[in-house]
Amino acid sequence: xxxxxxxxxxxxxxxxxxxxxxxxxxxxxxxxxxxxxxxxxxxxxxxxxxxxxxxxxxxxxxxxxxxxxxxxxxxxxxxxxxxxxxxxxxxxxxxxxxxxxxxxxxxxxxxxxxxxxxxxxxxxxxxxxxxxxxxxxxxxxxxxxxxxxxxxxxxxxxxxxxxxxxxxxxxxxxxxxxxxxxxxxxxxxxxxxxxxxxxxxxxxxxxxxxxxxxxxxxxxxxxxxxxxxxxxxxxxxxxxxxxxxxxxxxxxxxxxxxxxxxxxxxxxxxxxxxxxxxxxxxxxxxxxx
Length: 289
Ligand SMILES: Nc1ncnc2c1ncn2[C@@H]1O[C@H](COP(=O)(O)OP(=O)(O)OP(=O)(O)O)[C@@H](O)[C@H]1O
What we know:
Elements: E1 3-12, E2 20-30, E3 35-40, H1 46-52, E4 61-66, E5 69-72, H2 81-86, E6 87-90, H3 103-113, H4 118-131, H5 148-160, E7 166-170, H6 178-194, E8 198-202, H7 206-212, E9 215-220, E10 223-228, H8 230-234, H9 237-242, H10 249-261, H11 272-284
Parallel strand pairs: 3-8, 3-9, 6-7, 7-8
Antiparallel strand pairs: 1-2, 1-4, 4-5, 9-10
Helix pairs in contact: 3-4, 3-5, 4-5
The structure holds adenosine-5'-triphosphate (ATP).
């Protein structure tokens, strides 16, 4: 399912004394099957963009196309259930939204709310718990007896049980330790590939953006500052650093090597292996000229 934002503006509390322009003239395409990362400073408009992807927010100018459904500024939109079913959002700290007595009931809640039978919802809960790598026995437990990492996985299983075509992730690893972070990010990436999903990841981690995304959008002060492939975005590290954003560690290392040797490699490498090869080639060629 394709999603595209066309010249979207959003004002919080529009037409009130508290009106606040959050994003303007934002155009972003998420073609079916794409993994898109949205990066930018705090307050640059990432979460506001994200909430347009399943019509939690409706543009105050411009339009959003979600599959065949167009959400247009100034128009009353009815029955957005279909859109919400197809686009699942994993918010920051999703475990805060767990509320049922058992894990199973919690996972079944979303699908049943969208009209899935109890039998089917149970089957989906079982399959979702397997997908997130938890044992089935956990289905009978109270979500509040689990560890933080397990609760996060249960909350993610609840979104997966909706069987969405698009998954939107708002800092899904916030608060996890490095191992937990990698496990969750790898889980989303394998689901993305296996189920041919579209994935939109809002992140402060340049490493994750470089490692997983096909495309990156850089937001700055409510506008799209630039967009492109990870190679394109990180090939101009100075522009990102000037915005106060980081670059992946390996890019920072390349800049330091270039400075130390007073040389410039022909491209930016996004993996340690590639950087090591470029350095080896340089040395084999007799070092920097
Ligand atoms: N509910 C709200 N009411 C009024 N203004 C808001 C509201 N939510 C966000 N804003 C404002 O909109 C702008 C964009 O905020 P947004 O949360 O989209 O940024 P962000 O890039 O997601 O930030 P963060 O990285 O901190 O999550 C900011 O100026 C913010 O203060």
